[in-house]
Amino acid sequence: MKNTLKVVLADDEALIRLDIREMLTEAGHEVAGEANNGEDAVAMTRALQPDLVIMDVKMPQMDGLTASKIITDEHLAPVLLLTAYSQQEIVSQAKSSGVLGYLVKPVREEQLFPAMEIAISRFEEIKALGAELGLLKESLETRKLLDRAKGILMSAHGFTEQEAYRKMQQYSMNRRISIKELAEAVIASALKNK
Predict the structure, then answer these.
(1) Residue 158, domain CATH
(2) Is residue 70 situated within a structural domain?
(3) Band of the pLDDT at 95, cuts 50, 70, 90?
(4) The CATH number of the domain where 64 resides is what?
(5) How many domains does the chain have?
(6) pLDDT averaged over every residue in the chain
(7) Domain named ANTAR: which ranges (predicted)?
(8) Does one domain contain both 180 and 146?
(9) Does the residue 117 lie in any domain?
């Protein structure tokens, strides 16, 4: 966990926010914004891009679970959920909303900081996996386009698969375009000439 974290704190109880703000600031963290409802928490998270959001479950206008789901779906920040209730139903809803940590009030320092560290660590892992998944999808898409373009060249010019690939490789290097762009051009040309 980096030394100073920028945190958005959302709870409709001012006293709870005050207690948590004191814990955070005494530990050297910055409370960048405070909200007393879920709508404001989402807006602040979008605007302030915090390292972490600490949010209560029960709040007016938009509850913490709904706000957490929005923040999580938009990959804005990790969410640590606070609740006065430890009922299984709320725990299940918290899991499905994508929160990365869950604390029952009253929040104690010895629970808060480890939970923050774990939530941030899991968020970074999820972001890295998302980036890796994006690269894999891109690679698969390129592979499919390349196979289709090779097939077109093989049937049009009688090349073997290896010859078609080599020709495409040479052409893409000579023209300084990616193999994916070349494959797309070969496919588009073949479709146009049908």
Answers:
(1) 1.10.10.10
(2) yes
(3) low
(4) 3.40.50.2300
(5) 2
(6) 89
(7) 126-187
(8) yes
(9) no
The tens digit of pLDDT for each residue in 149-173 reads 999 999 989 999 999 999 999 999 9
Instruction: Write out the chain in H/E/C secondary structure.
Output: CCCCCEEEEECCCHHHHHHHHHHHHHCCCEEEEEECCHHHHHHHHHHHCCCEEEEECCCCCCCHHHHHHHHHHCCCCCEEEEECCCCHHHHHHHHHCCCCEEEECCCCHHHHHHHHHHHHHHHHHHHHHHHHHHHHHHHHHHHHHHHHHHHHHHHHHCCCHHHHHHHHHHHHHHHCCCHHHHHHHHHHHHHHCC
pLDDT digits (tens, 9 = 90+) for 48-73: 999 999 999 889 889 988 999 999 99
Domain assignment of residue 101, given as a range: 6-107
What is the pTM assigned to this prediction? 0.70
Q: Tell me the C-alpha distance between 152 and 166, whole Å.
A: 14
Q: Say if residues 107 and 20 touch (Cβ distance below 8 Å).
A: yes
- Residue 89 sits in the same domain as residue 142: no
